[in-house]
Amino acid sequence: MKRPWPRPDGDAGSALIEVRDLTKHFPIRSGVFGRTVGQIRAVDGVSFQVRRGETLALVGESGSGKTTAALSLLRLMEPTAGVVTFDGQNALTLDRPGLKRLRRKAQIIFQDPFASLNPRLTVGTMLREILHVHGLARGAAAEARVGELLALVGLHAADAMRYPHQFSGGQRQRIGIARALAVEPEFIIADEPVSALDVSVQAQVLNLLADLQRNLHLTYLFITHDLSVVRQIADRVAVMYLGRVVETGRCESLFESPRHPYTRALLAAVPVPEVRRTRSRVLLSGDIASPANPPPGCPFHPRCPHPDKDEICRTAVPGLRDVGGAGQAACHKA
Amino acid sequence: MSEAVLRIENLRTYFHSTDGPVRAVDGVSFELRPGETLGIVGESGCGKSITCLSVLRLIDPPGRIEPGSAIWLRDRNLMNEPEAALRQVRGNQVSMIFQEPLSSLNPVWTIGEQIAEAVRLHRKAGSAEARARAVEMLRLVGIPDPEQSVNSYPHQFSGGMRQRAMIAMALACDPAVLLADEPTTALDVTIQAQILELLANLQRTLGMAMIFVSHDLGVIAEIADRVIVMYAGQVVERGTTDELFRDPKHPYTEGLLRSIPRVTQKLRRLAVIPGSVPSPRSWPPACRFHPRCPYAWERCRSEAPPLAAHERAGRCWLDSEPERRVAGAWDALGGREAQA
Amino acid sequence: MNDMPERSGEIRHRALRLLMALIPGLAHLRQGHTHAGLSLLGLALSMITVSIFANERIQATFTAGRLDYWVALLTLAVTLGLTWVVSGVSSRHRLDARVGGSQWAIAWLGFKQNRVAMLGLYLMIALYLATLLGPFLTGYEPSVIGDIAATRHLPPSVEHLMGTDKFGRDVFTRVLYGARISLSIGFIAVTISITLGTAIGAVSGYFGGAVDTVLMRLVDTLISFPRLVLLITVIALFEPSLLIVIVVLGFTLWPSTARIVRGEVLSLREREFILAARALGLNSPRIILRHIVPNVLGPVIVAATLGLGNIILIEAGLSYLGFSVPLPTPTWGNIINDGREAMLQAWWVTTFPGLAIVITVVAFNLVGDGLRDALDPRLRT
After folding, report:
1. pTM given for the model
2. Tell me, what's the ipTM?
């Protein structure tokens, strides 16, 4: 596969994106005058960095705030507070032209391959529009580029004439990837890109994403609830619970020796398609609390199975602390 | 092994449209024994959910269960029963739980009223008795404070709690068979673990037989005793869970197992089943998996393989020509991946 | 030499090609598209019939110096020309269209299978053609009063298809000319109202917040006005004229379209392809025009078709009350009003315009319902 755009500046391994104390609260309004009666703390002081060329997986269950965090990062949602630095620039204070430049560097792939494509446009029209808006190619050059993009994701140039509903789910996801690649980004947020696909098609898309990363030197922020996928594709992992990062670390070490009790429970809960073994399962009791009304202290303490759970867990919010290796965990007892 | 509670023979459910029949379920046979869990695994459009609905004869026009299909519940063939008799079966001897507990529960009635309704209907119980049964069932499925919860409305419950309530409703009349259609797919993984554990425990204490439908091989491995794999409206493989996961016979099962990422280890590269899931409007001819199969040869393209009647069987010509199962066939597919 | 049979085959082939080029619809018929072929053929034949029978009047166009004659002549020529062009073009490109399969093409396939809706569509086309061809279809003038004593209240006959009214005017001619008012008012008013409604609804739904609040309160206010009272008041204040009626109808009907569009946009805005468009740096006007509006056109077209029938009814009501276009210009409403007193002696004066209203409104509603079924997004992804 040829590389159609130059390698981005900066060394591999340096931080491309730095997120500090990102917070997104949604007001809960009530009454005739829309008085604010509370806050949904969707994202509550999240910090992480994504290094050039790596894949950081943001993992969490529903209500953990992972998608809100990602959308805030691209300013598809305005965060309440925090700093997002993209390639040394503060992304949250960009003006309109600056934002347009950001959107050439950072792109997003969505979960639902049916909802994420405009049903009225052919694939070619959709891609040409992007090339046109960003002044990347016109006329015959645009035509050639569309063919290139489709080839890049394993489709045929002739597919440009077809409409989204004429493709299968996996093919539509490829089209979604081609759309993201059209602006030649350095950074791609993949929001649950395979969860809506058939099992037998997921591997195709995961392999494609891995190939594209290698060939085009892309940096990924991979958002998912599926830990098996994380293990396969991520270099580093950040586990989120109720709007906070509770553990981060290198993928291998986090999966081999999780430090936070939530990570441990999460890993134990994943069903494995293998001959049944007697597994020592940590079953979590109860449900995830509502982000509108998070518990005081450690957000995880009401469900936490840790034997040493005590008063401090119920009162003080634990911060991320180094726990050896390159990992950090937000647990008083880790 | 004792007599089967449920035996499906040559089930064919077609949907008739102006462009010809859609053969959603096309000759499925299996049996379910008392107290066991049979896993049905397959992808979208393979016919697994339609199979479940067909068992209860809940197929509406233009769908139709074709003549020649038989659904034996113990010694009654449900195909020959009138609608009134079927209503006595549904929710009583055979009940069902669905993927979306929110849309399966009626938002205007309390949880308790909905459980009690089934009890009153099938058990001719009085309202106090039915209510007591509802509380008992909620306690059984692990809903905290059941005396209070019985008066809650579905929207006041979280997703996991709703699924527990659905299970309570389904089990309120002590069914012999529980059909579970992707009951944990919409749930978070930690909640899914709770529900799987709950279903396994309930089965142990109540002794019902269960059909568990899922697309997730991990969930199936966890809960099923025996498994059937469905592809393109047919059963392509059958066996105990151990046999199936240790040594898959059908290339489709084999491909699935090789292509799923594992939480326990990182694979160098995932194997890939090329192409996409076929549409029920036009199943491929002969062996329905041949366009995506790495082993396929002439015979697979011209002749449909049968499924042997054994307990352990695969619908594949490799059975008679095992030497064609060459190592490395899946890796050689790398190049074809792009055309998918 | 085996040149001869090949050449005769060639000639036969060429003759067939020529014949297909000359006779519209033949190519379709030959390809097995009976429906399309017969429609084209029928349309061409009826246009030719009109040209033969109205030969004198067609020639009069050049001397009469009247706009409606020119419009009729142009309609005749364009329709006839179109049947040939469509016949040639679409018979060649038919297969491609089926492979392409845009959402519109699929909706059309669905619509075509709905026989009742197709009947409505044919009626609609026939009505508009008859209206435009008006002067060529009748030998009488709508408002010229002749010998009243001799021609007053004549029952329907070959000369007067729908009889005559109390002034001896040909009712068929008056209904034909009345159709102009009804159909053009409907058409223009609906165009105004859906354009305004779509624009305001899309802006309101897409931007939300204060913009939405202000626009929707405006909509609420307009919708809560009793429309007929508003119409009568405005028309009473000004001199009743075609323009006033069109403007008033157009500007009072947009709020319901705006509401439909806003609702659709609110759900579309949550669709990921809109988010993707924003992530790709497309600006708001472009997103609204290219990604939102085409996706709400389905319900808008349905609303427009049903609205047309509604407007025709309202206009008929207004002119029956004498609040519409002034006499002696015929409208369906005022023809009925004219015949009101003599309903028992001359039933035809009120019956035929009444029937025209019913047929028109039913035709538009049939098409509207057919479109609703064909465009329903729930039926496909």
Report:
1. 0.80
2. 0.85
